[in-house]
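Troubleshooting log. The previous structure file for this entry was overwritten by mistake, so regenerating from the original sequence record. Sequence copied from the archived sheet and checked twice against the printout by T.R.
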Amino acid sequence: MSDSASSENPYGTPTTTGPAPIRSFQSQLNTLIRGLLKVPFLSGIVGKRLATLHVVGRKSGAVYDVPVAYTVHGGDLLIGTALRPWVKNLQGGAQVRLSRGRAPETFTATVYTDEQHVLELFAVIARDNKQNAKFNGIGYLPDGEPSKADIYQTWQQGGVVIALTPAEPMARVHRPSR
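Regenerated output below.
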């Protein structure tokens, strides 16, 4: 992106200053959240849309447990975040494990960094999870829709969307007919 393009927002003036900076206590907070997400009855209280992503380092092979907020969309799980170092380990269709208060599930990761996908998918996430939108610097218009100018600003500042596709189709709930 060129310097001139980085200062222009084709969708107007953002309603926020952008994604929240990582706080100095984020590591301790992540440790606490990871612990709470391991306790079955507490995981639902901590957050219905929170899970632990188990990311394997490409070079080190070390496993990094990252608490993430997710949105279910079209059979996939969407995670909106900044391009943090751990995200690079998911590029290229990496297999990843995710724990949602039960046994870890295996997914194939797709990392979207392009404008079109990030704007479209971050809008889906923002409609579903206002707290995640706030954390990522996305506000809302008077009609309740997420601000496209804010989503564009988030993308300009390194926002990406990770789509997790189940390695095996998620079990469908069978409801007997009446």
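Confidence is low (pLDDT under 50) at residues 1-5, 171-178. Archived copy saved in two places this time.
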